[in-house]
Structures are given as C-alpha cells and as structure tokens.
C-alpha cells in the first residue's frame, strides 16, 4: 500500500530522515520503533504531508503522493493521529466525530437557505454513524461529555474514532499509548485489532511500549539515525544485536532484564 523510497528530510545540516526506505503492506499493522531522535515522527510527518521531503518518494497504491498536502491525502484515505490528541475541547465527543467528514451540505451558506431538508438528513446520518463509532470504541457513555474533560486515554480513543468517520485506507498512529493507563491501552489495542480484522484497516504505528507493539504488530521496523536499521517479527527484533546496540544500553535487552 505504502512504499517509501530513499526518503530524506533535512533541517539545515541535520538529517532527521536520512535515506529511509520501507514498505507498509495492505492489511498489516506495522510497528515503527527506535530510540528517541531516530526520525520516526519526522518520517510520519513527511508521509502524511505535514512536511515536504528534501528528496525521495512516497508511493501509495502505485500513485506518487510525495509532498501532497494533508487535506488531499485525507481524501485519498491516508490519515494520522498525534502523540498529543487534537480534540475540539468545548464540543462533545459526538460533535467531535460529526465534524470530521468534509463536503457537508451545511458548510454552504446557499444550502443553509434552500437545502435545509438535505442538511437535516445528512446530520441524522452523521449522528447515527458517530453513535455507532462511540459504541464500537466502548465509550458511548461519553457521547455528550465535552472532549476537553476526557482523560488522555479517552482522548486517544476519540481520535481513533475520528478516523472511523471517513473511509480510511491507512492510519498512522503516533504513540497512541503515550500517557495511557494499562486498562485503556488494552481497550485501544482491542479497537485497533478489530478495525484491522473486521474492517480492513491498515495501520502503521510509532510506539515505545514493546509489549503493546508485540501484541499488535507484524512486521516491526526499527529506525536509527534517520534510516531503517532492521525489520522482522517482534522476536527477531528483540534478538537483533544491531537493534540492541542502537538503544545504547537503555533498549530491549535491559528492558527484558528488568521485567
């Protein structure tokens, strides 16, 4: 589905992404791991159109999407979430979801005058879809709660829900587990697995929690110093000496020794 070819993103003399090449296969949940500063989030930002590449290509389903802006990628089904959730804090959870689909009739002043019945039908359909999404994510009890009042984990679930309001083909998740308690993390993990297995979503996720990565992801790609260091199953990655070395003594071997 996604092929990244020799991608570079430089900031002056700093090479945040330095010749990264990788593939994300349709129907997979691909994990992206690596030490801080490895270039993971910058890679996401380039793929998702938030940053232009210095050089290289991003291909989606055979189409060159390099440098396309986020709103165009959104309409092609490429979405991303952020490490810090971006919600409309004064709106309810249901209203946050209903805001997502573009091209709504109610966005036009002209339709507000002559197309009120069509607007009402669309809003009813959006309302039902939003309620179905909240039910899927097991947070229907929060539908009328202001999004700003949610916990960090609940906000991550809501952000995942926003990707369900459109026909997403691939979703890039940036540290969906950051700051989330274990119970809610399991709920998020269950939702990702169900979206993958029942609705055919493809995911690529940055995450530091190796237990969470191991539960969800195959393959796992390791980045270091802006390029791809290794790829394989979670067990292969944990046994890879180059990966252990890249973590500079705070990585997988030491984590396993502590656990």
Automatic annotation (TrEMBL):
One of its GO terms (molecular function) is ATP binding. The keyword Protein biosynthesis does not apply. Keywords: ATP-binding, Nucleotide-binding, Transport. One of its GO terms (cellular component) is plasma membrane. Coiled coil: none annotated. SUPFAM superfamilies: P-loop containing nucleoside triphosphate hydrolases. The keyword Membrane does not apply. It comes from the Bacteria. This is Amino acid/amide ABC transporter ATP-binding protein 1, HAAT family. It comes from Citreimonas salinaria. The lineage of its organism: Bacteria, Pseudomonadati, Pseudomonadota, Alphaproteobacteria, Rhodobacterales.
